Amino acid sequence: MSPTDLAAQEQRKTADKQRVVNDFSIQVATVNGSGSQTANMVLLRSILMMGVPVSGKNMFPSNIAGLPTWYTIRASKRGYIARRKEVDFLVAMNAETAKEDVLTLEPGAAVVYDEPLKLSGLRNDVVFYAVPFDKLVGSVCPDAKLRRLVRNMIYDGILARLLGIELSLMERALAKQMGKKAKAVAMNVGALKAGFDYAQTTFTKHDPYAIEPMNETAGKILIEGNAAAAIGCMMAGVTVVAWYPITPSSSLCESLIGYMKKYRIDKETGKATFAVVQAEDEIASLGMVIGASWAGARSMTATAGPGISLMGEFAGLAYYAETPAVIFDVQRVGPSTGLPTRTAQGDLLQAAFLSHGDTKHIMLMPATVEESYTMAMQAFDLAELFQTPVFVMMDLDLGMNNWMSDAFTYPTGPINRGKRLTAEKLKELGEWGRYKDVDGDGIPYRTVPGDNLPAYFTRGSGHNAKGQYSERPDDYVENMDRLARKFDTARAHVPKPVVQLNPEARIGFIGFGTSHFAIEESRDQLVEETRVETSYFRLRGYPFNEDLPAFVDAHERIYIIEQNRDAQMRQLMKLELSPERVSKLRSVLHYSGLPIDARSITDDVLAQEGFEVAKKTVSRVSAGSAGGE
Amino acid sequence: MAPIKVNRIGLEPQVYKGGKTTLCAGCGHNSISERIIDAFYEMGVDPKQVVKLSGIGCSSKSPAYFLGSSHGFNAVHGRMPSVGTGAMIANQKLIAIGISGDGDTGAIGIGQFVHLMRRNLPIIYIIEDNGCYGLTKGQFSPTADVGSTLKTGVVNDLPPIDTCALAVQLGATFVGRSFSGDKKQLLSLLKAALAHRGTVMLDVISPCVTFNDHEGSTKSYAYAKEHDDPVEDMTFVPFFEDISVDYEPGSLQEVTMHDGSKLLLKKLEEDYDPTDKLNAMKRLHESARRGEFATGLIYIEPDRDDFLTQLNIVDEPLAGLPLARTRPGPEALEEIMEGLR
User: Fold this and answer.
1) Which of B23, B64, B94, B212 would give a disulfide with B27, using CB separation of 3.0 to 4.6 Å?
2) What is the CATH number of the domain that holds B81?
3) Which domains are seen in chain A, by residue range?
């Protein structure tokens, strides 16, 4: 038996006797389309208002109504906001999955369930609370048509009572969620109270879970990564947006439209300082972005893997003709349609080399909502500075889930519009060539239509330094070498890695994007449970810089943690590291479609390090559910 | 020394020329390039404000052969409309001319073509239509007529796409067809196109001398000359010229363009009203049934808002807005943050 296993068992044993305060996860199982999102957000926000660090993750089907969906909320006094595999408190509202949801719980868990589901006979090692939801909703909502909308709010009331969340905070969270719809707020408050009162008069608490006030969330915000990126785009001064709806990226452009309509309308004329076009497909989206950038606008699109596939040809054109483009890839599970509503980091190789011929692209990898905001701004600077596509590699977990964060700070300093030729510069240079490397950094000067400076003919076909059509071998090689030089220049400009070097550590972790939170928690688990020390290199940009080989050199073994099957980041690193360094690389791979969790990392690393680890448990949602198109 | 000839904005004809053509001698596309040069010179368009766009193919090479001092973008196959759309949104002061081919539009580019027409983006979109893929040595394109043959004798079994009928149906506001050999008609159409605000779609039959100018082709010079079916006799009067035309009452239709220019349309053997959509579709189909092709101004809708107007963007080009106008102030960010707490 392994140390981790022992620790986990020990924890469970004591949990039966002791209260578990601000350190557990709640899972709400409902049918999608039943309006549970408001109830879940109110629960999440009220815990945040209690001052307790919290995170929420939505695991939903690719469907509009009728299929199972789960929402997990994790309260963590230590501030862990990664997904937790184990469920401590289940709210079972979905007849289809209730039985299996209960059977997969660990001993000691608690279940609030819809009375007709008759779940209490299933096990005797979990605590059950039966709630007659239909009866309760009938008394607070006389209009049968509206009951569906408030029914779920009852479980919030029940949980408020059972977990000790202040009802007044829930009411505040509800008001925040619903805005100015007074009638709807009143009806939902009624449902909240009905649940609370029912729990108060009916239940004696037998489970150990409780929320108690802390002071860890003052000033914090709750936001989805897509909305955070949208704010960044607006603050970057984006003017042309072209997009095609695709999960999980749609809410990025939709949030952006919302913000821009509010903050980017010219006060005097009532006209927009931006344009958003819903294109006919992702090919056209990128075509529009390229056209707009070519004409001098800050322009962007957002998509997911299938859209990236379609953009391949245009991405190569933008690389070779050297036009800026900002492309957000909110990654989901592929290949093909894959699992469109589940998360992955599976587009790395595709984005890095998108298009035919020798093509390579800059990638930024935000891990947090705050970085989604700041890197959105950086992406525009880099795209214009390097006159090339820049991919912001987000994922569904980051983009569509609500994350607790410090408030974003207002950007300071000017934006970088890159090397635009001016009349003065032209005078200084004497002669201008569109693709001439004047400064030795591979970055040429450009002009845009309408600027009254020398024009040029932009083309994806072979061209020389003056931008003239050329099939001469020397011209081709010279141009391609300059493009490679430009890419090398970018190494020093993409966001630097965040490195935590631990002098005690023989092994180093490399991670990026949303794996960050699970990695941090796993590092704590490794120290606390097995005294395994680790260093951590959080990658934030591609191409890599000199920090990467230095980090590899400082450790005996490197674990590259990523959310895909084929170790895509490791493959990218293999292309640049020496064979000795490559031999140190190992992988921790997670690709179930669910956000990566700390326990999976810890167990995987310990197994590879030669510890004996208990057989992996498969968490409920990944165990399989029916899905629709 | 004779005074140098200049146009109304003081530019010489030379300014409107481009690089030396690399297309085949006798290619219809070269004639179209010449008419474009004439039209832009005569209308006094500032080449610095023009963007030339194209896809891929012989047609799409031609922007290199006119307006050498304008910016050009030879994009990817069939996707020029999206690049043009982006450029025009970025800077609505620009004048866009896109050159495509029958394959570039009718096959790989049909999706983007359809949506360009729907949006009524201000752009002059020209299809240099020769019914075949010249650059890949003469395969049929989607505008080839049923029964027409390749040089090798292969017969085309599929019905053609009538890009004019499609454009009329989809919402283009200026649709015309012409023949590269008809200098007068093509020049009038191009000048009128420059006076129009909205999508101009011109399908110009432009024979491929190398691969599709034989007997059996319906896109040859000989066939085009014999089967040209003009719907009206057109005179374009630009807003800056004061010309009066004598005509018999009832024989002429006058259309006022966006910039104040006028189109005088003299009726030929039958009544034709290019502002009537149903009539336009009917006439296109009737000519096609006779094995002819209707030419001239097929359809015009001078008053509809173009795409950029619908977007309600500020008057200045978006591309040139300073950061002060595109980055909301700190109070905006604070308001957003407060809403998220």
Assistant:
1) B23
2) 3.40.50.970
3) 18-210 (3.40.920.10), 223-405 (3.40.50.970), 423-490 (no CATH), 498-623 (3.40.50.920)
Residue B246 in tokens: 């004598």
In chain B, which residues have their Cβ closer than 8 Å to the Cβ of A274? 313, 318, 326
How high is the pLDDT of residue A78?
Answer: 96
> Which B residues, 10 through 39, put their C-beta within 8 Å of a C-beta on chain A?
none
For residue A98, the Cα-to-chain-centroid distance in whole angstroms is 28
Q: What is the ipTM of this complex?
A: 0.97
Domain annotation covers residue B328:
no
Q: Does A407 touch chain B (CB under 8 A)?
A: yes
Is residue B325 in some structural domain? Answer: no
- Number of C-alpha atoms within 13 angstroms, CB side, residue B217? 28
- Residues in chain A with CB shorter than 8 Å from the CB of B18 are none
Beta pairing, strands A240-243 & A275-278:
parallel
Per DSSP, the residues of B41-84 read HHTT--GGGEEEEE-SSHHHHGGGGB-TTSEEEE-STT-HHHHH
pLDDT, position A584? 98
Name the residue facing B314 among A272, A298, A461 (closest C-beta): A272
Q: Does A271 touch chain B (CB under 8 A)?
A: yes
Chain B residues inside the 8 Å CB shell of A218: none
Give CA–CA dist A239/A297, Å, rounded.
Answer: 6
What is the nearest CA distance from B86 to chain A, expressed in angstroms?
4
- Binning pLDDT at 50, 70 and 90, where does residue A17 land? low
- Tell me: the pLDDT tens digits for A468-513? 999 999 999 999 999 999 999 999 999 999 999 999 999 999 999 9
B82 touching A, CB under 8 A? yes
What is residue B29's predicted lDDT score, i.e. its pLDDT? 97
pLDDT tens-digit series, residues A120-132: 999 999 999 999 9
Which residues form the domain of B109? 13-310
Read off the tokens for B63: 């922007």
